Amino acid sequence: MIAFVLGGGGMLGAVEVGMLRALVEADIQPDLILGSSVGAINGAAAAASFDADTVGQLAQMWERLGHGSVFSEGLAGRVATLARTRTHVHGNSGLRSLLEEHADGRLIEGLEVPFGCVAACIETASAHWFESGPVADAVLASCAVPGLLPPVAIGGRHYVDGGLVHSIPVGRAIARGATQVFVLQVGRVERPLSPPRWPWDVATVAFEIARRHRFSEEMAALPEGLDVTVLPSGDVSAPLANLRYRSTSLVAARIETAYQACTDFLAARSRS
Asked: Is the Cβ–Cβ distance between 187 and 242 less than 8 Å?
């Protein structure tokens, strides 16, 4: 059973589109797709129909993100939203519209490839997996970055970004019976951490440890015989802190860089 696991990373998530394109061209077909945060967006699209056309449409969606349709508010708008809500600087109507347009009313259980995405439930302080119900609602919940976007209310509970509880959910794929896992990640886990040198580094390093530790533990405790492949992003300079989350100028370049890196990697893997 082949599983694709797509991690979070904001605008860096464009690299996963290049990885998906490389996987399509290598004719590697998933039996299960799991996503967290922005990986839920890419994963849901791939689960709808995993082929070259779908990946092309996903790339076009990212180009639309590049034109500022989701985080389009200027500084005054962000300040006004924060003053009004006291909890976040952007509304989620733009992202919801984009997701609903592409999901076209589909339910998770109606996707061609079994799919699940994770969000953090505020009321239970735990991970919640969406494996049924409307695609758009589940993905919006998984992407609700605290402070940037509002929590998403579903079934009387409130959900925020899945990266808080499971940034790269390899363990879930194992629990679902995967024997081969391809990890699509944005490049951060390819960079070793080092002690902070400046005051502003402290929070960045601490947050990265919190985000990465579960993945590290699961990778260190893989069952014998399980094949887990972490695909390369091709970008050794991926920032640990996503402070420029509205910057979309590198979307196309990130897709192409990851595509080339994964194409070369998968070709070499098939020869070995």
From this structure: no
